[in-house]
Write a structure and sequence with these properties.
Membrane topology (chain A): Multi-pass membrane protein
Largest interface: A-B, 58 and 63 residues
Keywords (chain A): Cell membrane, Membrane, Transmembrane, Transmembrane helix
Structural class of chain A: alpha+beta
Main location (chain A): membrane
Radius of gyration of chain B: 32 Å
Organism (chain A): Ferrimonas pelagia
Shape of chain B: elongated
Order of helices and strands of chain A: HHEHEEHEHEHEEEHHEHEHHHHHH
Number of domains of chain A: 2
Oligomer: heterodimer
Subcellular location (chain A): Cell membrane
Low-confidence stretches of chain A: none
Helix content of chain A: 40-55%
Strand content of chain A: 5-15%
Distance between the termini of chain A: 28 Å
Radius of gyration of chain A: 31 Å
Mean pLDDT of chain A: 90
């Protein structure tokens, strides 16, 4: 029966080529617009750590007085002070934890003919690689001992390894970066979490850093932060050591807590820490508190999905709605014009239900054709987006899930649009049409 | 004259087609009025004047390998070397570049202890040449002399004097001239010696984007920004020369981000440009879809009413009267659609205002979009209406 209806639908579309083409085109344009913004939204709202969402937490502390506002929904700053990060590093509860800063290194190639170049960097703890499941091509993370002994070692990205060592296993080689020598202990394989959830301060969609060094090297090599540094207190900072002692917010902190019980323990430990610091004269606010946010909360808190994207998503779905209303009108016109034909089929014994089904099949065919063309339009739209936003290169790509979603969306939209016209034509009284011929 | 009543009663005989057009027009109006408004807001934002002589400026970043040494001698030499490149008018080391989204800012208040009026000010640091390099103009007071300049070898900034932008002055001292007044940065008093007409901070999307100051302090930070003002025809040659000249003097550093100011501006407003383009595309496509819809339904309604039209023609109606019938009918439907759509547009605007940073939709946008849609309706119906007018009266006598 279905294939018969399908054949009828195809014949019917061919009978009115212009109006059919208009319907397919309108549906395709609507689906193209909705599919484009939906794809971007889908990639933007992706949680790359969904499988560990309830184990990874960003840590924040209110070390400031009540007049300061970190510019977030709970007025906390996104980062910690160095003394707090250093103290939390010593806490016992978390299985794994890491303090980190965004850095940058000017790397001097061995070849004197080549100019120094910048590599993005991150000073972090050994646990970074385990917590965030960083795959290794060569070598391994530095040892736990390095996190306290501050040895000048580094883990580099595959791209930097290609650039400096031609892709060879570079473990044991040295790199001169910002006037210090670092020994390579590991090379990272492909690692591109998008959004780059662990540091969203300077944009959420960019590549991970190229050079990772131990956080314990901060006081030794005086590694400068390339990220944000916010102050709430008037302090006279004369030297790098002053920075380390200061109340400036510039260090990021993540912990891994495996169970809710462990999380509760850690929260208690932090509460105790705040109490102790207040007794020591720090943390002037009576409401000083600590906050743990899991990955999804952290992505939402940082507003990773841009406001523009939400507006575009809303408007593009309204657009699709217009296309659907448009299609209802055209379908009504088309179906009712053929009412005489339907009347004959009814007179020959087709039930209302069968007429309804037959027309829904026709509508679905339009939906599938529109969806197919719409997917092409969405691909064109995404290519256009990549031109407009260079950093959308990773974002504006359609995967198979998205493609299927777009096709289903089109089918669904067409069926919804077809319900009323198909019902109307199904109710046709055969006698009414038969007599006029 | 316009036979509104018979047209209306003819219209009411089959309601679903007109109702669908009304719904479609209402939705279309709601979307395009708001989209056009957002486009206009973005275009206004991205065309704002930064206050500097953009066409003559280029900028780049120098990152020294040695992050802790005394970098002041090198920095002064770099400025000298840049000024010797043919075509360069002025060159200055500073801490930030307008519209670059990266730099230093601090709260500045009109009274000590964070009292009085205050605003977050993006501050530019540099020697006396910076003022000429940026090419800004003064409204009052004077620019810096070489004797005003100090070197800040620490990371705490403690200037004694500053130039502030008119925008900053208006916030701090709304009722009087700020010239000669003291302002406070982290409780440190600073004398306002000059007021600049316009100078935008590095953050084009901050609310107080125009709150800016220049302080006469040179900083030997390991990262320095350089701004170079060149003769207009020398832009390309200077862009090419910068890296070689500076690295020839000292190769132990990285020179990056060499770009004309026009590119800095493009980058700063890239999202706004993209949003404006995307929404314009949405508007055009939406109008096209709506126009197709009207053509389709009007054609259908004409073919449905062939006999009635033929009968009217046979009873003496002129072709013009038939044409007019369909135009007026369409105008009635469209008016109902845009009336409903006006509420939709205002509702959508309210929703966007509550959830996002968007201002109130000015009535002008609504009126223009509304008129445009009615005109689009008339244009779309023109062809089917013309076809209706060509229906021969003889059709009335044919068949039943």
């Amino acid at each position: 029966m279905f294939s018969y209806y399908l054949r009828l639908a195809w014949l019917s579309l061919k009978q009115t080529p212009v109006i059919s083409a208009l319907m397919v085109l309108a549906m395709a344009i609507g689906i193209g617009a909705a599919g484009t913004s939906l794809t971007v939204h889908y990639t933007m709202s992706h949680n790359p750590m969904a499988h560990k969402n309830d184990q990874l937490y960003a840590v924040q502390l209110k070390a400031h007085h009540d007049d300061y506002d970190g510019g977030t929904s709970d007025e906390l700053d996104l980062q910690l002070t160095y003394p707090d990060a250093d103290n939390i590093n010593r806490m016992s509860t978390p299985q794994r934890s890491t303090a980190m800063i965004r850095a940058g290194f000017s790397i001097k190639p061995d070849d004197p003919q080549l100019h120094p170049f910048m590599a993005t960097g991150r000073a972090t703890g050994r646990d970074f690689f385990g917590m965030f499941e960083v795959p290794f091509l060569y070598g391994a993370p530095w040892s736990t001992a390095v996190d306290t002994l501050a040895e000048p070692v580094t883990v580099i990205s595959r791209a930097l390894n290609d650039k400096l060592f031609g892709g060879e296993n570079s473990v044991g080689q040295t790199i001169e970066a910002s006037n210090h020598l670092y020994t390579v202990v590991g090379v990272i394989d492909d690692f591109h979490p998008q959004p780059l959830f662990y540091d969203l301060n300077n944009g959420a969609f960019h590549e991970p850093e190229e050079m990772f060094v131990p956080f314990s090297l901060l006081p030794v090599n005086k590694i400068e932060a390339f990220g944000n540094r916010n102050g709430w207190k008037s302090e006279n900072l004369q030297s790098y050591d002053d920075w380390l002692r200061s109340e400036m917010y510039w260090v990021q902190y993540w912990v891994e807590l495996e169970t809710p019980a462990q999380k509760a323990d850690f929260e208690q430990e932090l509460a105790g820490y705040i109490k102790q610091q207040r007794q020591l004269g720090r943390m002037p606010s009576d409401t000083a508190f600590a906050s743990l946010k899991n990955v999804q909360q952290w992505l939402d808190y940082n507003g990773v999905v841009s406001e523009d994207n939400r507006i575009l998503l809303a408007l593009s779905f309204l657009f699709l709605l217009v296309c659907m209303v448009n299609m209802i009108g055209l379908l009504l016109a088309k179906f009712l014009r053929r009412a005489a034909h339907t009347g004959v089929r009814r007179a020959l014994g087709a039930s209302q239900r069968q007429i309804f089904a037959q027309h829904l099949v026709e509508v679905s065919l339009i939906g599938v054709l529109g969806g197919g063309l719409g997917s092409v339009f969405a691909l064109v739209g995404l290519a256009g987006l990549r031109q407009l936003y260079p950093y959308y290169d990773q974002l504006a790509r359609m995967d198979i899930t998205m493609l299927i979603t777009v096709l289903l969306l089109s089918l669904l939209a067409a069926i919804i649009a077809g319900l009323l016209p198909a019902w109307r034509v199904g109710r046709t009284h055969p006698a009414h049409y038969l007599k006029s011929q | 004259m316009f036979e509104l009543r018979p047209i209306l009663s003819a219209l009411l005989r089959s309601k679903s087609a007109p109702l669908l057009i009304i719904a479609q027009l209402a939705l279309t109006l709601a979307v395009i009025a708001n989209a056009a408004f957002i486009v206009q807001e973005r275009l206004t934002t991205l065309n704002r004047d930064s206050g500097v002589t953009e066409s003559e400026l280029l900028s780049f970043t120098v990152i020294e390998m040695d992050t802790q040494g005394d970098l002041m001698p090198q920095r002064r030499r770099d400025e000298q070397l840049l000024r010797q490149i043919p075509g360069v008018i002025s060159a200055s080391a500073t801490n930030q570049i307008p519209l670059s989204n990266s730099g230093s800012s601090s709260t500045v208040s009109s009274l000590p202890d964070d009292q009085g009026n205050s605003v977050n000010v993006g501050y530019y640091m540099g020697n006396e040449s910076l003022f000429d390099t940026l090419g800004i103009s003064l409204v009052a007071g004077r620019a810096f002399n070489p004797t005003d300049i100090s070197v800040d070898s620490t990371m705490g900034t403690r200037p004694d004097q500053a130039l502030i932008s008119q925008y900053t002055a208006d916030i701090l001292f709304p009722d009087e001239s700020a010239l000669g007044k003291l302002v406070y940065m982290q409780n440190h008093p600073i004398e306002v010696i000059g007021i600049m007409d316009t100078l935008q901070s590095p953050w084009p999307h901050r609310q107080d984007s125009y709150a800016s100051a220049i302080i006469p302090v040179e900083t030997p930070m390991f990262i320095a920004r350089f701004m170079v003002r060149v003769e207009a025809d020398a832009m390309d040659s200077v862009l090419n020369a910068v890296s070689d000249v500076l690295l020839a003097d000292n190769p132990d550093r990285v020179i990056t981000g060499i770009r004309p100011f026009a590119e800095t501006r493009d980058r700063a407003y890239r999202n706004d440009t993209a949003m404006a383009v995307l929404l314009s595309v949405v508007i055009v496509l939406l109008l096209a879809v709506t126009a197709f819809g009207i053509v389709g339904l009007a054609s259908y309604s004409v073919s449905q009413r062939q006999k009635q039209i033929g009968t009217r023609r046979a009873l003496g109606a002129t072709r013009l009267m038939v044409l007019r019938h369909f135009l007026i009918e369409n105008a009635m439907i469209c008016s109902a659609g845009v009336l409903l759509g006006s509420f939709g547009a205002i509702g959508l605007n309210q929703f966007l205002m509550q959830n996002y940073e968007l201002s109130r939709l000015p009535l002008g946008y609504l009126l223009v979009s509304l008129t445009g849609l009615v005109l689009l309706g008339q244009l779309s119906v023109a062809a089917p209406a013309y076809r209706a007018s060509t229906i021969s009266p003889a059709i009335a006598t044919r068949s039943v």
